[in-house]
Amino acid sequence: MFQKTIYSCSRVGCLALLGVSVSAWxxxxxKPANTCTGTYPSxxxxxxxxxxxxxxxxxxxxxxxxAYAGPVFKLSDDYPRQRVDDKANQPWRSSKFDPLFDxxxxxxxxxxxxxxxxxxxxxxxxxxxxxRREKEDFDVxxxxxxxxxxxxxxxxxxxxxxxxxxxxxxxxxxxxxxKSGTGSAATTMWAxxxxxxxAAYTLGTVWQKDGTAKxxxxxxRFDEGAVIGKPLFNTATLDQLPVLANMPRWNANISDPxxxxxxxxxxxxxxxxxxxxxxxxxxxVRLMQFDISVSDHRASKTGWVYGTFVxxxxxxxxxxxxxxxxxxxGLMWGNDTPPEGQLAYNYPPNPRKNGFKQQxxxxxxxxxxxxxxxxxxxxxxxxxxxxxRLNGPADNANSSCMSCHGTASVPDAKFTTPPLxxxxxxxxxxxxAPVNGxxxxxxxxxxxxxxxxxxxxFSEMDAxxxxxxxxxxxxNMTTKxxxxxxxxxxxxxxxxxxxxxxxxxxxxxxxxxxxKQWMQWQADQAxxxxxxxxxxxxALRRAE
Length: 544
Prior knowledge:
disordered C terminus, alpha+beta, signal, Cytochrome c domain-containing protein, disordered N terminus, 11 helices, ten-stranded antiparallel beta sheet
């Protein structure tokens, strides 16, 4: 058996089995190929001549100065042009994990399998990306084990575009209920996602070798074994969120940690002035959440598995490797869709006791996160999603990992995409608990008031947002049997009038966001819009 293992694994994997560290091997190994070509801009306000026009007229705060001597982020964009299957190094694809996806498997068995599956994926992502001598963590340009890549063109947005130290992009604001001070902490999340070669091949069908984008006109689907990893960092202090103690900490060129937000009609030039970046004043961010996603055909309703690890720095303070001071919050491969006419907020009944069919939640981790929070239940770190579906501390309590990502679509001619959540639009909200005795008014999980819009009921909206969308399938924005398009007639409005459905980007919200930025830049260039008049239409919101 030992001999068989040796000949079926990669050189690095074999050395690991023998107890030899990767870094020790890497010291005398041939230098790996550099996947950072400079074809696309690496960060917002990148000084590369090819893209200098993107930030013309803006206040420059996201570029190294003479006073800065630290690392500078480079985008890994040398996408494979042939399909890549890394199955030999992906042990979670073993038949051992088949029962995880069987609804009849006992809950305790699913929990054990889910934990092992997720940790295998997590360490696959970390290998060669952290703890290297004289290299910044997640500097993926020359990974000595396997190549990793970034999404191109998250660089035409002054508020959220990549910062120049680590390539972090600004996520939505998160206000946490805390025990100290005023009882709440307004924070921001900053994240960077990386894609293995299998996933990056699909990215390369959109982002071309010449630095242009090929806008897809048909649905895409990532290949089996595609893996995406995404560490998310938060701006909270240790006094506010003690669970962040002992976690990886990065110095980053970020904007106001309480989420600077200029007037809605501000131009990009104005945004750059009103929300400057700063690597001297507010520069510490700590790892709070680490998301994983894997293309796996055994997830028969969606084709994807999503997992979330969270900071557990107090309980794991003695763990030597800081990247291992996380715990698995949950793993999901479906939305546990409510039956027709039922509501997401209370289906399935009592999941803490009864479990889910298509996900596993680790309640001890939930309790640990919540123990550091104040009195606001859905603003504690362990709030999870709708009816306790999997969602991390950084995410919205009315949704789930898969319900958000399933919306990923090619923007239409008006830069419109399906809203990430119904709450981000003028539509009927999702995950609403109706007022007793009434059917048309209620509250969502945050306590915000909700009412039925255009006769689209709460259960009909839940059926849309908590549907199990199959990989590479158009996200449906109509009520059952296509009765009502909840976004209105004529949406989507693609250049091809025969294209009536959303063009799927197969759960990749980053691909959707980056394409929107590219399309708006191209439109501004074609129209010769003066720089002082250019505006960025925020991603994942309706444009009108």
